[in-house]
Amino acid sequence: MLYTIPDYYHEFTCVAGKCEDTCCAGWQIVADEASLEKYKNETGTFAERLKESVNWEEGTFKQDKDRRCAFLNQSNLCDMYTALGEESLCRTCKLYPRHIEEFEDVREVTLSVSCPEVARILMNKKEPVHFLTYETDEEEDYEDFDPFLYSKLLDARDVMIDILQDREKKLNLRAVLILAIARDLQECIDEEDIFSMDDVFDYYQAEEGVREVKNALAEVDYYTYSRKMFQNQYQMEHLRADWESYLQKAEKLLYGNANEKIDRKRYVELQQEFHAWMAKEMPEYEIQYEQLLVYFISTYFCGAVYDGEAFAKAQMAVVSTLLIHELLMAQWMKQEKVLDINDVIDTVYRYSRELEHSDSNLNLIQELLQESNE
Ligand code: SF4
After folding, report:
1. How remote is the CA of residue 88 from the centroid of ligand 1, in Å?
2. Residue 258: which H helix or E strand, with range?
3. How confident is the model at residue 83, as a pLDDT?
4. From ligand 1's centre to the CA of 257, what distance in Å?
5. Do 271 and 363 reside in the same domain of the chain?
6. What parts of the chain have a pLDDT lower than 70?
7. How many CA atoms does the CB half-sphere of 170 hold within 13 Å?
8. Which residues neighbour 207 within 8 Å (Cβ) at sequence distance 6 or greater?
9. For atom 7 of ligand 1, which residue has the closest CA?
C-alpha cells in the first residue's frame, strides 16, 4: 500500500482541553461496529456510562442540548479516553483530524482544516506544500476501480498543483486556469476520450491557453458570481446553530440590499479597497489562498474516479476559497477594516466544518455547481 501525507502532517498535535473550539461538539459522531461491540462488552466501572451515553440504534454518541458529546467533560476532555485509554476511542475520534481518501492500493492521508490547530499550521505555512509517500506490505483489491482514469486524474492533479504553486502568476489566473483544465477534462471524461486529457494539460501550460484564460478572466462578473455562490450556502444543512445568522449578516455587508446598481458599485469599490488593504497589511494572503486551493484539490479532486465529476471538484476548491475570501472581507468590514491571522484561521476552520463535516453538504455543493454549469 502506498501512503501519501502533506509535508506539514507531523507538525500537528491535538491541544485537547486547550482547544478553542473542540471537535467533540456540534456534529454527530458515528462509531464503527467494532468499537460499538467493544463498548457493549465493557464490564468495568465505565460500563454503565457507556450504556447510557451511546445511541445504540443509531450507533452514535449522545449529545447534550449544546450538541456536546456525552463523553466530553466541562474541561473539554474526553471521559472515555481518561477512563479506558486511547485504544477505546472509535475510529472517527481516533482518526480526526486525519482524513483518508482510499484508491485501491493508495491511501491519501490529509489533515482537515476544520480543526483550528491544522488551520493554524496551514495558514502560517509560507513554502509550497509538498506531499511525502511511504509504502507498506498491505494489499487491497477494489472491484469496479478504473486504474486508467485514476492515473490520468493523478496527472491532472499534479499539473493543477504545479499551476497553483506557480507564484509568478497572479492567484486569480492560477485559479481560473485549473477551472479551465477541469472543465475540458470533464468533456474528455463525458465523451470517454481519456487519451485526449494529455492535450488539455499541454494546452493550458502553453502561452495560448494562458492567454485564453486571461481573456475570460476579464469578463468575470464577480458581484453576480460571488453572490450566487454565497447564497448557495443557505441550501446546506447548518451544523452550528449560529452559522445561518453569521452568513446573513455577512451577506448583507457584502452584497447589500438596496438596489442592484448601487450594491454592485459599492461591492466593486469595497473589493478594491480590501485587496489594497490585504496587499499592504497581510501580504501573505495570496500564499494562504494558494494553500487552501492546494488543500481542496489534493483532498478531493481524485475522488472523480468514483463519480466522474472532475469539474465540480475543481469548482468546489475554487468556490470554497472564494467564499472564505468573501467571509473574510465581511469580517474586515465588521471590524472597522482590520483583520489579523486569527480571523483567517477562524474563518477557514468554521467554513470547513460546515462543508467537510457533512457528507450531504459535500454532495450538495457538487450538485449546485453542476447545475450552475448547465
Ligand atoms: S479540533 Fe483539533 S485541536 Fe481541537 S480537540 Fe479536535 S483535534 Fe484537538
Report:
1. 18
2. none
3. 96
4. 38
5. yes
6. none
7. 9
8. none
9. 14
Number of domains in the chain: 2
Q: Coil, strand or helix: which one is 102?
A: strand
- Atom of ligand 1 minimally distant from the CA of 16: 5
Cα(62)–Cα(309) distance, integer angstroms:
35
- Enter the C-alpha cell of residue 324: 472564505
DSSP 4: E
The residue out of 56, 71, 95 marking a domain boundary is 95
Residues 368 and 290 in one domain: yes
44 and 155 inside one domain: no
**54 and 167, same structural domain?**
no
- In tens, the pLDDT along 185-226 reads 999 999 999 999 999 999 999 999 999 999 999 998 999 999
| pLDDT for residue 321 | 98
Ligand 1 atom 3: the closest Cα is on which residue?
Answer: 14
**Are both 190 and 284 inside the same structural domain?**
yes
Distance from C-alpha of 32 to C-alpha of 304, rounded to nearest angstrom = 26
The pLDDT assigned to 4 comes to: 97
Domain membership of residue 87 as a residue range: 24-95
Helix (H) or strand (E) holding 264: helix 260-281
* 131-135 sheet: strands from edge to edge: 98-103, 106-111, 2-6, 131-135
Nearest C-alpha neighbor of 81 from the set 98, 96, 65? 96
Amino acid at 119: A
Q: Is residue 63 part of a domain?
A: yes
Q: Within a 10 A sphere around the Cβ of 265, how many other Cβ atoms?
A: 12
Ligand 1 neighbours, Cβ below 6 Å, are 14-16, 19, 22-23, 96-97, 115-117
- Residue 14 domain-assigned (yes or no): no
What is the per-residue pLDDT for 158? Answer: 97
Cα atoms in the 13 Å half-sphere on the side-chain side of 163: 29
Query: In the listed set 95, 112, 136, which residue is the last one of a domain according to the structure?
Result: 95
- Block residue for cell numbers 468546489: 316
Predicted pLDDT at 11: 97
CB 329, CB 249: distance < 8 Å: no
CA 94/CA 87 separation, integer angstroms = 8
The answer on 216 and 156 residing in a single domain is yes
